[in-house]
Amino acid sequence: MSDSTDQNSxxxxxxxxxxxxxxxxxxxxxxDASQDADPVTAFFSxxxxxxxxxxxxxxxxxxxxxxxxxxxxKWPGGGKDKRGDGEKSQWSFLVNSDRFQKVYSDCKVTxxxxxxxxxxxxxxxxKNGRKIPSNKNCVCKVSDLSIDQxxxxxxxxxxxxxxGQKDPAKEARDLELTTFGxxxxxxxxxxxxxxxxx
Length: 198
Hints:
By secondary structure, this protein is mainly α.
């Protein structure tokens, strides 16, 4: 998906009409405040900020038509059974945009510690047993993963928690995953906001 960079700026800008920065910052502040004492709540809060961002991006006047065409190319015929109408299509559309990928690439320079974070993979999809990602069986650095894999891992952590199929209060592995999730997602969202205007 192609979207151009501002000609008068050294840094890429993502313009999203109607994006409420205060709403995102509110959730990120909650994530930061609870990260040490309660990484599960912190991850939920960070995810809410990301969820609002990618949903607003996909349905904004700038990108809605592109999103519709992109969905149709990825999941011909659409329908929730093919994930074309689900949340995954929304965040995947954002993550696959040129501007988002440029911001992610810039993070490798401005926030290199994010790429050094590690996570034990794969993560099991508790609904169907599928492994995410299917080609990794190791403790991986974020830098070892493609951008799609990073956000697929975060999404699977979110799904397993939201669907009540994980218990970080009892399982060390579940706590480890949510801790990884918030340590990556909260600071990444703050970096993404620096490259965003409405």
